[in-house]
Amino acid sequence: MLGYYKRSLTDLFNQVQAVHRDPDGQAKVCLKIQLRLLASTIRAEQKIRQIKHSIRVLKKRLATRYPRLNESEAKAVRKQISLSRCRIDGYRQVLAILRDIGDALAFTYIDKWDIKPLAFKEAPGFLSGKEGLKKELNALKTIFARGYVGILNDLTNCLRYGDISVVKNGELLVFEVKAGRSRGGRTNRQSQKAQRILDYLDTDRTDSLYGVSCEFRRISVHSQEVDHRNALNALVSKAMRQGTAYAEVENGLHYIMLAESSPQALGLIEAVGGKCKGKPIIALVNEITHANRGYWPFTLSIRSSEALYRFYSNELTVLVLVDSEIVQETFGAHGLQTELRLAEDWSVWLSSTRPEHDGWIAKGISRHFFGRLFAEFLGLQWLLEEAITKREQPET
């Protein structure tokens, strides 16, 4: 299924990279990409509907008593149902990649730290057949005609509030576009939720977020973010040529790229794990491709369109290994004891007996924040120091 879309997807990958390199100069291309995404999304959704209908017909045929299918005929129908379900999965994968491309546009024009609060909300339904879609599209075109940049939110994974996000003079605005004139209770509630998020982004404080009612406060990062995306792309290029590539991009942080399956590739993973002083924390990055967590999208991290396609089709495997001993040593230098609970919501728990740490004993680092090591290819020491700094911030 994915192979059928290869030419279109790789072309879109190249286009979003061009927009990211020159956001202002390529604003019109941003609109063209969205029109292509919309058309491709609607076609894929229609295919899914057609296949689901055929599955219902086949199931009805299996259940029909007169005339009853013989064993061979029933087996053939069940096989056809199974193949149809695989086709649906294929189209769903295409839809997810299309939304990842939409995410690349969102992260190009909207600050990444502003996007996270916008991402955690239930996913919308199908775009095709959506009431008001024509008005949304007309509004989007008008926004670009007036010299601003707009993102049709349903084309992304990460923009879940409102219908269109607009960047105007550096300010983020979210609009609801309705098909009718009336504004019912549901519409008002949607607008209120969107405004609450925007107020949070403006004031850095809210009393409710991510479905949890308590005080939330945003704190600026302690220093310029450090990432290893250049090293990632150099290794990807090498793996595409040679089959495998490896580097310790930072003390305790290892990247492995596999463009082939072989005993040597498995041996490389074991050898890298053996380099770690402590138990290695291993992440298969391919497994988190479509997990909407408000992370920097892979459509921007991996710059080669061919490599990105192979990454999505699992022909290019990306692994990140973290030496747990380095994590513990870094926190230990600040008088903190570390307990790793990687399967839980709070992946790292910190505790201390130091008097100056009184009041924040046994604080945790969320799995989402720790996951940026693997999903965004951030620097290990930078992320750990950021976690320490945040937890040493005085409450105000």
Give structural notes.
The protein is of the alpha+beta class. It folds into two domains: 2-217, no CATH class; 229-391, no CATH class. The protein contains 14 helices and twelve strands. The strands form four sheets. Strands 6-7-9-8 form a four-stranded antiparallel beta sheet, with helices on both faces. It has a three-stranded antiparallel beta sheet with strand order 1-2-3, with helices on both faces. It has a three-stranded antiparallel beta sheet with strand order 10-11-12. The protein is globular, with a radius of gyration of 24 Å. It starts with 5 loop residues before the first helix and ends in a 5-residue tail after the last helix. The relative contact order is 0.10.
Roughly how many Å is the radius of gyration? 24 Å
Relative helix content: 40-55%
- Along the chain, the helix and strand elements come as HHHHHEEEHEEHEEHEHHEHEEEHHH
| Overall morphology | globular
Mean pLDDT: 86
How many distinct beta strands? Answer: 12
- Biggest sheet overview: 4 strands, antiparallel
Strand content: 15-25%
- What would you call the structural class? alpha+beta
Low-confidence stretches: none
* End-to-end gap: 53 Å
Please give the order of strands in the largest beta sheet: 6-7-9-8
How many domains in all?
A: 2
Number of helices: 14
